Amino acid sequence: MMKRDECLRLLAAKVRDEAIVATYQAAFDWMAMAPRDLNYVSIGAMGLASSHGLGLALGRPEKRVVVLDGDGSLLMNLGSLASVAAAAPRNFAHLVCVNGVYEANGSHPLPGQANLDFAAIAKGAGIANARTIASLDAFAADLPAILTDEGPIFRALLVEAGAPSPQDYAFIHSAQARQRFKVAFAR
User: Fold this and answer.
1) Which of 54, 73, 163, 173 has the least C-beta neighbours within 10 A?
2) Tens digits of per-residue pLDDT, 1-31?
3) Structure letter (DSSP) for residue 170
4) Treating both helix axes as pointing N-terminal to C-terminal, what angle do 24-33 and 4-14 enclose, rounded to 10 degrees?
5) How many CA atoms lie within 13 A of 140 on its CB side?
């Protein structure tokens, strides 16, 4: 099992001009290690990071969109996987941090968490390039393909929480954060 912050550090070292759509704890971790204008944070919309990312990917098909999601969040919007598969955006990658709990809401266990296989669910929805990654070395080896191969791409990252990151809700909900993303994404 990997630490989520270690996975995100690897991603941060490789990201260039991709739009990153992050939600809840992954968003806080990502913003702490990779503050940038192309970060779209989806807080207050649990389950909708994949839908927001899909809309952005369809709106700008020449720009790579990477969604950083949580398993609890995705569980609330599994239908988005069918929408992603149907739209088949070539520029879309969906990384789901799987830790078996609703971390943002007190780490309550996901229902049926022992039986959930998010990569199998994504494949069943029609996303052919879906798999589970359980080690940091495997993630590092797959990262170049995640950032360049034709999508849609889905990866279930088996993680545990890392060091806690500051939870700056004021910035995330600010008009300034939205405007910075809007300008950067339009370039």
Assistant:
1) 163
2) 898 889 999 999 999 999 999 987 788 888 8
3) H
4) 50
5) 8
CATH of the domain at 52: 3.40.50.970
Q: Which domain holds residue 47?
A: 2-185
Please give the tally of structural domains in the chain. 1
* Amino acid at position 149, single letter: D
Task: Dig out the tokens for 40 from the structure.
Answer: 């779209």
When pLDDT is cut at 50, 70 and 90, the band that residue 88 belongs to is very high
pLDDT in tens, 133-174: 999 999 999 999 999 999 999 999 999 866 666 677 777 777
Q: How far is Cα 153 from Cα 149, in angstroms, rounded to an integer?
A: 8
Taking the CA of residue 166 as centre, how many other CA atoms within 13 Å lie in the half-sphere pointing to its CB?
A: 10
Q: Percent helix, strand and coil across the chain, each rounded to 5? A: 45, 20, 35
Strands 19-22 and 39-41: parallel
Q: What's the half-sphere exposure (Cβ side, CA atoms, 13 Å) at 116?
A: 21
